[in-house]
Amino acid sequence: MTKHPRKPSKPLLRHDNAPIQSRPIRKRNPAQPQLPFDPMPDRIEPALAKLVTRPPAGDDWGWEVKWDGYRLHVHIEQGGVRILTRGGYDWTDRFPAIAEAARALGPTTMIIDGEAVILDEHGRSAFGLLQQSLGASGNKPGTFASPAILYAFDLLYLDGHDLRAVEYRSRRHLLEDVLDGQKGAIQISEEIDADPAILLEEARRHGLEGIVGKKGDSIYRSERSGDWVKLKCIQSEAFLIVGYELSSSAGGGFGSLLLAAYRGSELAYVGSVGTGFKERDVLQLRKLMDKLPWKRKQPPVPYNGSRKVAWIQPTLIADIEYRAWTNDNRLRHAAYKGLRDRPDNADVYCFPA
Question: Do residues 146 and 126 make contact, with C-beta atoms less than 8 angstroms apart?
Answer without folding.
Answer: no
